[in-house]
């Protein structure tokens, strides 16, 4: 009689111990600040009529930068156009991915160029960078103005 009772208690103890392995906080892996993140700083923007060429310094985990985008909006009084004092709402974007034409990353310097602006209009733009880690947030530069 003692022996079956002992095995029941032993079984309960073992099940409790094994079920404890499944307990705990579970989260998706997140980028480690020091190892996996980067920042972007626009150092030069040159607009020539329809084209915008930008130079960006990438700091931090440069190798994690997978793609970059030029996000922009037209500044004016028309429908769907932004204004200088209004919050920036990118109406359009041009995307560049690593190993594709237009994405030039040498060391920590990124060069992007886009030719598609109306030469008579003013634009506001910023650069957005996406990490190769899917859980990392987008990284943005400040918003700048490109005058004709």
Your description of this structure?
Helix content is 15%, strand content 43%. It has two helices and nine strands. The strands form two sheets. Strands 3, 4, 7, 8 and 9 form a five-stranded antiparallel beta sheet that branches. It starts with a helix and ends with a strand.
Distance between the termini: 94 Å
CATH fold group: Immunoglobulin-like
Uncertain stretches:
none
* Count of beta strands: 9
What is the arithmetic mean of pLDDT? 86
The structural domain count equals 1
What's the alpha carbon Rg, rounded to whole Å? 26 Å
Structural class: mainly beta
Q: What is the CATH class?
A: Mainly Beta
Enumerate how many helices there are, as a single number: 2
Q: What is the correct CATH architecture?
A: Sandwich
What pattern of helices and strands is seen along the backbone? Answer: HHEEEEEEEEE
Helix content: 10-25%
Tell me the overall shape.
elongated
The portion of residues forming beta strands comes to 35-45%
Main beta sheet: 5 strands, antiparallel
